[in-house]
Every structure is written in C-alpha cells, then in structure tokens.
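Before a computer can learn anything about folding, someone has to put a protein's shape into writing. The three-dimensional part falls to structure tokens, numbers that each stand for a local backbone shape. The protein below has been through that process, and both of its lines are reproduced in full.
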Amino acid sequence: MPRKQLIVNADDFGFTPDVNQGIVEAHRRGILTATTLMANGAAFDDAVRLARETPSLDIGCHLVLIGGQSLLTGRAYPLTVPRLVAALARREVRAYEELKAQVWHILSAGMKPTHLDTHKHTHLAPPVLDAVARIAEEFGIHWVRRPFDFPMNALRGTVPATVPMIVPAVKRLTSAALGLLRRRFHRVLKSHGCRTTDHFAGFQITGRLHTAQLVDLLGMLPEGSTELMCHPGRCGEALRGERTRLKESRERELEALIAPEVRAAAERNGVELVGYAGLR
C-alpha cells in the first residue's frame, strides 16, 4: 500500500473558458486529480458542464472574497488582502454570508464538493477562517486546505531561462510568516470537525512550476497525504483579458502536469494520485 498520497488540485475552475479547458486537459491527460470551482467566475456554467462530462474529476469550492463580484450584492470585492481586512472590519464584506451564498450556488448547480479552499488564501485571516470552518461544518464538507508549504529549499530542477528564479527569498519568508498562524488555524478547524491533508505544497512556487521541478517535487514528498496546489490553463484571449499575473505560466504548468516523465516520477517514488474523496 502506498505511503504517499498526492492530491493535485487546480485553483480557478470557472475563471475563464481557456482556464477550464486547461484544467480538464490536465486531468484527462495528466496527473491532476481535483479542482476548486469559483461560484462567481465568469465561466462558471462552462466549468459545471465540463465537470458533468468528467465525473472522475474531484470538485471543491474555491471561495472568493478578492476580485470578482459578490453573489449577494453584485458589488465588486476588494482587490487586495489589506483592503479586504479593512472591509471585513467595517462590515462592508460579510464573510460568512458571502461564502455561504457561493457554496449554495455550487450545490444548486448539481455539484457535490468534497473540499474547500479560498482565493488568495484569505482563510488565513481569522474572520474568514471562522466563516469557512462554520460553513464546512454546516454543509458537511470537511476537507479544508492548509496553505502551509512543507520545506522545499532543495527544490531546484533545471530552470528554463524564461522562468523566474525558483522559490525566491521573499516567497520563502512569506511562507515562513504564514506558518506562524498554524496553531490557531488548526485549532479552529478541529473545533468544527474539519480535516486537512498532512502536508501542502504550491504557495512558494505559484507561477513557477515546470516539468523538471515537478519531477523533483515528487521525489521529495513526505509520507502521508499532500495537496499540491497548481494553476494550469490555456492562455487564450479570455485569460489575456483578465486582471491576473498568472497567464503564460498556466501553459507551463499544464505542460508539466501532462508530461510523461512526471507520471513516471510519481510511479517511481510510490506516489498514489488521489482526490479528496479517495484519501485514507
């Protein structure tokens, strides 16, 4: 029995049709096992259609409080984390009500989500975490992302000249700072009956994931269950018109996820690819 289980989970399902296309392609042709759906995404209906056509793809909720529009009020969400924190303090954004509406929207479309995460990891903010944990308990969606990378200082691989330096110092420092929130994070989730994977990877390498690096990552996975966050997609006209820094990088991630050497590395290292529904 494999001692290493890996969930390869794509964010932003429902963002644009070309992102949706890349996510489904990464599942059908590669190692991607799960994705999280944006209830307020411009391509939500397209994502639901694709999910129905791809029942083996594990679906979760990608809860959004930054960017896009509120399902409750139609107003735009804040564009940055500091602005969101200020809006939460002034009660201009009601995290519980907003996020509950998003989960209802996904359920009403016939989806059966198995896990929750948040856009830009906003559930690290205490009021958002409290809302997410409460919603997870109420809807019986008990798996919640733990966005704390396991140590990846040795992760290098062969970096193409067009790819920025892997795991820059600012990313490592930010990841370490997030780790300071772990104690409260896990205490709140436990109090609401929520679970997390044993490990997580992807924060430090967002927008920088490529084939050689993914092969290296599969070789250093710790024992237990790990979620790898990724952002694959096709970079078409729709994505190019959006306000996001993750554009061409989505194509590189897609190439990595479908590369034969990546699947071979998973088999060589005894890694079992699963969705949240398949975790032991």
User: Anything to note?
Assistant: Confidence is low (pLDDT under 50) at residues 156-171. Residues 4-278 form a domain with the TIM Barrel fold (CATH 3.20.20.370). The longest strand covers residues 4-13.
